Amino acid sequence: MTRQEFENSLAKYSDILKQIRDSAHLLHDNVNQTYDSTRPYGFHLDMVAAYISKYGHEVCTEEKDVLPLFFGAYYHDSIEDTRETYNSVMKMAKQFMNDEQAYMATEIVYALTNDKGRTRAERAGEKYYRGIRETPYAPFVKLADRLANAYYSFNQCNDINTRMKAVYRNELPHFLEGIRVKDSIDVRFSLPEDMVTEINDILC
């Protein structure tokens, strides 16, 4: 899609996008989840969605994919953090879109859900990254998620963010390699180069 076509779609679906946003915020509020211990978790979700808005025209191929793309952004932590299941997320998605769109949206959320593991490396191992690479739009949404976290960490001054700065910087080469789909002509699996440049500029 062109940037203008994408922005036109955002305007067209603005009411539904707000409903998706509010629903995701409420979901995390209901389990008292916070971001950086002080902010409502919706703060992070909005940051991720902002990157989807900024770069989405570079990967979104059809207007019908706009709602699944944003649902994936707003709900990407729902299975991992709010005790939802694949089926319950699918049910929520169907409140906002048709069955085909809801399937795409739920697959994005599922792909971005960490595996069970004792360490960060175990929770985001090769199986996890393979699931992202095999799911349309999941690499893009995951990069938006990491970009939001990286930007926030590099603009805050506390012990947690200082530690995460080093983690995100050290992980960057492996992270990009893990989510990058090679030799695919399907733009839905792509990573916008200007988006990759932005995270490199923040971390390197």
How would the blueprint of this fold be written?
Blueprint: H1 3-12, H2 14-29, E1 34-35, E2 39-40, H3 42-55, H4 66-74, H5 78-81, H6 86-93, H7 99-111, H8 120-123, H9 126-133, H10 138-153, H11 159-179, H12 193-203
Antiparallel strand pairs: 1-2
Describe this structure in words.
With 204 residues, the protein is mainly α. The protein has a single domain (3-203), classed as Orthogonal Bundle (Hypothetical protein af1432). 66% of the residues lie in helices and 2% in strands. The protein has helices at 3-12, 14-29, 42-55, 66-74, 78-81, 86-93, 99-111, 120-123, 126-133, 138-153, 159-179, 193-203, and strands at 34-35, 39-40. It has a two-stranded antiparallel ribbon. Strand 1 and strand 2 (39-40) form a beta hairpin. The longest helix has 21 residues, at 159-179. It is globular. The model has no long low-confidence stretch (mean pLDDT 95).
Can you tag this structure with a few keywords?
Hypothetical protein af1432; 12 helices; globular; 204 residues; mainly alpha; single chain; 2 strands; 2% strand
Counting helices, strands and paired strands, the structural category is mainly alpha
Count of beta strands:
2
Please give the CATH architecture. Answer: Orthogonal Bundle
CATH topology: Hypothetical protein af1432
Strand order of the largest sheet: 1-2
Helix and strand element order = HHEEHHHHHHHHHH
Round the mean pLDDT to the nearest integer and report it: 95
